[in-house]
Structures are given as C-alpha cells and as structure tokens.
Amino acid sequence: MTTVIDVANVNKTFKLHYERNQSLKERLLHPRSGRTEIFQALQDISFTVDAGETVGIVGHNGSGKSTLLKCICGVLQPTSGSISLRGNLAALLELGAGFQVELSGRDNVYLYGTMLGFSKKRIEQIFDEIVAFSEIEHFIDTQVKFYSSGMYVRLAFAVAVNVNPDILVVDEVLAVGDERFQAKCIDRIRRFQQEGRAILLVTHSADQVRALCDRAVVLDGGRMLANGDVADSLRIFRDALMQESVAHQTEGEAASIVVDAVTTPNGSFDVATGAAMRFDVQLTSETAYSGNFVMEIYSRDGVLICRTDRQSSPVNLRPGVNLVSVELPHVPLLDGIFDINVGIVDERGSNVKAWSEKVATMQVTYGGREGGLVELGALIRQQ
Amino acid sequence: MDDAASAPHHIASLADAPVRVVSARIGLGTRLSNLWGRRELLRNLIASDIRIQYKGSVLGIVWSMLSPAFTLAIFDLVFSIFLKNGIPNFVIYLFAGLVVWNMFFAGVMSATSVIVDRAGLVKKVSFPREILPLSNVGSAVVYFVIQLGVLLLFCGALGHAPDWHFFLVLPVTFACLCFFTAALAIVMSALTVYLRDLKHLTAVALQLWFYLTPVVYSYENSLAPALHKHGLATLYFLNPITLIVLTFQRTFYVSSTVISTVTHQPLNLLPTWSLGQYFERNLACLGGMIVLFLIALAIFGRLEGNFESEL
C-alpha cells in the first residue's frame, strides 16, 4: 500500500501569553512582563495513513486533534518532527474560510479552488458538478454576502469534495447543513473511499468513527493513546474519558466499576431471529453506586442498532460483584454478527461510569426471506 | 462499478506522486518553488482584490485611469498657475516619480496589515502565506501599469516625447521596484503579526520616506550640492527608490538641464549620467534587490511558524 500521510515524531509547543502585550509601547516599557508558559500541544505523534484508508482522529476537547490536523495541512508548522504527504490534499478545517463575501459565488469557486491548490483548468472542468452538488444554481452569480449560512457552507463543501483530492482532511464540518445535505456529504465520502482516496476525519462522535473509519487514532492531552482497530481505539478513548471524569469527581464518588464478563445462560451467543436471548453481565464495584445500565448493539459495519434507555434502567450496585441481566424477549435482527457494548452511566444518564466496548459478539441466524437489518414481519395483501 | 474499476489506477498513480514534506522549516528553494507552483492563486487573489475594489461602482476599473488623470490635471493647474517653480512641463517630471512612489506606497501599505486582516484565512487554509503580501504588490503593479498609460497619454497631449532609448533600461528598473516593494511587503506583513503598532508606524515612516525621495523636488537642483559637500550622496542613494525614480524621470522627462521659465537661468534637474551608466546602476540595484527579496522570504519563513498562536 502506498503511504500518503506519514507523521513522524511530531511535537508542537505553544507559548502561552498571560498578558498579551503586542504593542510597541508595552514591549519597550515592560520587556519582561507577562509570564509565558510552554504548552505542549502534541507530544511525539507518529502514524501513517495509506491510500484508500479512512482514519478517524478522536479525542475530547483540547486533546490536540485540531492542532495535529493543522500541522498535517501545513497551516501550522510542527516544532519538531516531520510530516510527509503524497498527492494533493484538500482540507476542510472551516468551510468557506477563504471566501470573499463581496464576490459572486462563481468567482469564489475559482478563488477557493485555487486556494485549495487546484488549477483553474481543473476547476473549469468540474464547475457544473460543483454547482449541481451545492444546489445553488440560481444564485451562483450573486454576491456571497447575500447567501444564507447554509448556502455558504454547501458551496464550500461542494468545491472541496468535487476537486477530487487524493487526501481529504475533514475537521468536524460534517455537522453542517440539513439532514439531506449531510447524507449527501456522507455519501460522497463513501464514494471517495471506494475510489481509493485517503480520508482523515476529526470528530468526537464515536458513531461517526464507527460508521466511516477503518482505523482510529486516539489523542489525549497531546499524546497518542491508541492507533488501530476502531473498536479497540474507541474502548481506549472511552477509558480515557472515564478516567478524566473520575478525576473530576469528588472523592466520595470516585468509585471504580469494572465490567468483568458477559455470559448467556447456555454459554452460546448464537440466536435465531425471533427467539429470546438473555445476557448476564457481571460487574465489580468498589463501593455502592446507583446509576443506569446501558447496552448498545452494533452491526459489523458500524451502524448502531439499538441503545437501551439510559435514563430509566436503574441499577443499585453493591460493593463487590453484581449481576445484571438483560433480556431480549424476541431478537428482531436478521442474520449477521453484532457487537455488544455495555456500561454504567449516572442517574441522569449523561456521565459514563463504566464502559466496555465490544464485550460480546452475537450471531443471529435467520431462516426467512426478508432483507436488511430487522425482521418486521410485514404482511402483504392485495385489497 | 466504474468507481471500483478506477480505484487501482488511482492508487497506482499515487505511488508515483512526489512526496512533499511539511516539516518544521521550509528551505528557501522549496519556498520559491511552492510560490511558483501557486502562481494561479496569486493571479486569482490579485484579480479578486481589484474586482472588490471597484465592486458596485458604475465606472468600475475606469476609475483607476480617471483618478490619476484628475490628479495630473490638478497638478498641472497648480504648478502652472500658483506654485511656479520655473520647471517647464513640471507635471511630467512630477508624475514620472509619482507613479513609482504610488506603487511602492500602495504595495507596502496594504501588505503591512494583510496577514492580520485575513487571520481567518491564514489560520484555516494552507497555502504559502507570502502570497498574501505578494498579491497586494501584484495589485499595486496593475495600478502602476494603468497610471503609466495615463502618463504616456499625458505626454502625448502635452507634445512631450519620452526618451525611447531608456525603455531598454525601464524593464530592469521596474524589476528593481517590484523586488524591493515585494521584499518590504513580505517582511512588514509578518512583523505586524507580532507588533500591531507597525501598521501605524509604517504610515508615518512612509511619509518621511516620500520626502527622502526626489519626487516633488529635484535631487540635482536642491540636494546634490549640499550632499556632495558633506560626502552624504552615497547615503542618499542607499534608498533604492531614488535610483528608480531618477530613471523614470530621465525616461519620461528626458532633459537633465532645463532653462527656468521664471529666472531664465539653467536648472540642473537630473544627474547627467549616460544611458550606459543608468543601465549599470540599475543592474547593480536589481542584483541587490533580488538578494533583499530572498532575505525577506527567509525572514518570513522564520516568523510564520508562530502566526497561528499570535493571530
């Protein structure tokens, strides 16, 4: 496989100014005033991305993921280490950052396209495609300042994806536009994947990573915690999040809960569509804890099938070993392999206390002819 | 199916693609080749700059010809009626220097704050940043060419023929002007990110600089004797704009010595160098300016690493 992005031992430090003295007077009068502190935003990051791969970068706020992305795009220079790229790269750090509002949509397509590094000829060839994708045919010769924010963003996204870069870098911009446009963007990204282009996606949505990525890199406090399989990386990401939330809690609450095992009464995770299924989850808690139990079922291509109600599934854990059982009266899934995540969240259902990713795998067999993910048992009659 | 079929081709062609290094520091050679590779962006930025300037005005780009023409007409009126300095066709002399100064001033002044003004772009889109100040210089060049056209029209209207031989020297002089303006524009745009006062300081410094350059006065007539006496002439010529202005004045105004229309005494306006001497000096100047331009790029490279955290 051809490596298209090679990040080698990248470090990035920032100087934090406590007093921003940028005027000459300030500098002359108080040359030493204003403490500065070195902040290490990235610490020895190394990973590669091959052609055709989609890699997600996950991490919570301030973990350095945007800094890393900016280094890769060349907006920021790393303090040390090197980043090599092969092929051309289009970065969507902020949609429409290069737009000149006084100019028409048409002029901006050319300006933005050349800014992303594509030739005028190339843009001319795909101009109609860009306009069609953005769905603003009627307004293409209107000044961009009269555009609605949705139109603005759509045009910018249309330019960036239609120039067909070898590497597409996306920073949480998929959350724009209405649902239909978002679906169109996701669809375009999937086409990119099929065409063997590399995509680097920054997000804090674990669902998006599961749905789109082949691999995930987890950043925390500027360090790389994981780089590998999506499920493994997400587990490490969740663990890191949890440690953080434990650290933020008062001492009395700082109990650790561990998911020990998930078993079934007969030891088998194979089930037929429509049959009942029961999981026994064994949890060890250090102290007593009242919260909610959550279970997630994912399909193998990362679609969340179901997440149980995390606000009204209360469990009162005692210190020591606890057993929680989950009963599915009849499994509506069609055949396939499904991954199961379980965890404990607090009473409001917002903070995760314990989490175990891919703790079990369920195999469903189906004898009928319905297709898709679930059996609806549809009855079709001519009236 | 089409997509799937094209995938291997795509990957195969990628294997041959050159590897670009986005490392801690970009060398001067890479910097120059990056700049050359992005010349279309430069052209687009200049075009959009000019388009925005005249957006919504009825006459549009015609204004860029009209306003210097009006300036010229007003100067003509003022210097032939109120401020008689005895120099025949003084407007031509004045305007020959002024086109040079205007380009230098516009280029440096607009570039000084360009990176700060377009922080949103600089922080979010990757491209060689020096293109921003260079695009300001580029639009200054466009206006310069238009003003030069106005000057030639005026020469024709006044029946004053330029010295056509000097058009051999002018390209070199023009290159000097471009490289010098670009060098200063690049350095100032980067420094202003760290010291916001520079925007205002530059405005003041350029005003002083204007009077250190023989645009509204004649070097030979008013300064040369005193400077030579104190041995300061070399110092005066350290200002590259001086040589450039003198060459333009020599080209368009032609006569080095004129008979004053007021005192009827001979007046020395311009140095009495030969065409060859002008050429030599301009070539030497060009060499210096290119070196200066490269130094400016290197300085920019050192400063741009922290743009993101300073903007």
Total number of beta strands of chain A: 18
Q: Let me know the average pLDDT of chain A.
A: 83
> What is the radius of gyration of chain A computed over CA atoms, rounded to a whole number of angstroms?
25 Å
Oligomer: heterodimer
User: Biggest interface pair, residues each?
Assistant: A-B, 55 and 47 residues
Question: Which descriptor suits the 3D outline of chain B?
Answer: globular
* Regions with little confidence, pLDDT below 50 for 5+ residues of chain B: 1-9
Sketch the major β-sheet of chain A: 6 strands, mixed
Radius of gyration of chain B: 23 Å
Question: Could you explain the architecture of this structure?
Answer:
The complex is a heterodimer of chains A (383) and B (311). Chain A is α/β, with parallel strands linked by helices. Chain A has helices spanning 24-29, 65-73, 105-115, 120-134, 149-162, 179-194, 206-212, 230-248, and strands spanning 3-17, 36-50, 54-58, 80-86, 89-92, 167-171, 198-202, 215-220, 223-229, 257-263, 270-272, 277-285, 289-299, 304-307, 314-317, 320-328, 336-345, 352-365. In chain A, strand 6 (167-171), helix 6 and strand 7 form a beta-alpha-beta unit. Chain B is an all-alpha fold and 311 residues long. Chain B is 72% helix and 3% strand. Chain B has 15 helices and 3 strands. Chain B has a two-stranded antiparallel sheet. In chain B, helix 5 (90-112) packs antiparallel against helix 13 and helix 8 (131-157) runs antiparallel to helix 9 (170-194). The longest helix of chain B is centred in the C-terminal third of the chain and has 30 residues, at 275-304. Chains A and B meet through strand 1, helix 1, helix 2, strand 4 and helix 3 of A and helix 1, strand 1, helix 3, helix 7 and helix 15 of B. Strand 4 (80-86) of chain A pairs antiparallel with strand 1 of chain B.
Summed up:
The complex is a heterodimer of chains A (383) and B (311). Chain A is 25% helix and 37% strand.
